[in-house]
Fold:
Amino acid sequence: MQLTPSAPGVRGRLGAGICALLASVTPAAAQNNEGTSGTQFETAALVYGEQARVKIVEPMARITHLWAGGASVFAQFGLDVITGASPTGATPSGSSTTGPPPPELGVQTTTAASGGGSGGQTPSPNAIPTAHFSDQRYGVDLGWTQPLGSHVIPSIGAHVSREKDYRSLGANGTLALDLYHHRTTLTMGGSVDQDQVFPVGGIVLGLSDGTPSGFTSSDKRSTEALVGLSQVVSRRWLLGVSASQTRESGYLTEPYKVLSVVDAGGVPVSSLREQRPDTRLRNAVTLASVYHLTSDVLHASYREYWDDWGVRSHTLDLALRHDLGDEKWVEPHVRAYTQSSADFFRFSLHEGARLPEFASADQRLGPLHSVTLGCGFGFRPAGSPGELNLRAEYLVQWGDGHPADAVGIQREMDLMPPVSIGSLTLSYSVSH
Structure:
């Protein structure tokens, strides 16, 4: 998970997180073990904020109808309202030991993320340059599950979303096989997404100063394959392992990100648009365990990720759900994350040097580390048929901001200073 997001990146991550929360607070169709039918309504709202950067409000609602035989259909609706500032990729102008930099270097002109806000920015000498933006995203997800007998459970789904400069269409399907008296479950699935990127101002040439390419939009395609195996080890212990591979092709460059070109003293003299490869192969393996202690439930998972861009990450996640009685529970949570940088990640380019084939200063592709601390609380309000859940998390992210190829005043600065991120999620679920 990369946590210094531009607008499109943060939407995908938060959308997945809030969907997982909705799925966790109520039973899915495959969990309809009582054989009852009914309609279930779930709603959630996320408030997310980065220190002096992105602010997000994301309400979401889901309606699910369950049939006695285990079949179900759901529709989910989401809205993201995002404002704030996103790092442009440019480096700080810095300050010289012999005096301030020339006045003309104080303004670093960029195109604002998602087309919002103005282009000219005047950050303080040691501040990471950012571009202000505002945008809204609307999304709809649909899904259907229809068990075939007692051992085969297929599911299909589709989604569509639209924002100012991005449109996404996708479909997915999974097949779950229950084996050995329902103690083992084998899951196979896949998805395909066909997206279109249409940046404000059109597509520009990579590693240029903003030269138009002549195209107003470009396509991006993604296909994913997933296989997973879960095993009931005992009445208290459930183990699982899953592996996925995602192939992306098309326009994978962030259209608003830039790189600073610095002189021998480390002072920015110009900026160029970034350029990324047009293909990417992503791989991930996850190990998960759920163990029921005397009165608590321990959730633990480890995920390793690697791709052909050179990014490799490790994620350790632990949560302990403690039952407080009277239909109340509390769940403290801790998560640790670390990743290496992409092969073409650069904090800046050097004036006069030959341009590389690909280069990006997007911090999401840099050497990142983060620690998340959080806690959830759930209960059934008096006189209410539903369950209310509240979750708060605080994340600290930092990186290696002292690269070996830093020059001049760059050696005196932290090019990836720590960032604090907070989120608050409130959800409610009720069945009829």
Observations:
- The domain at 7-431 is CATH 2.40.160.40 (Porin).
- The two ends are 36 Å apart (CA to CA).
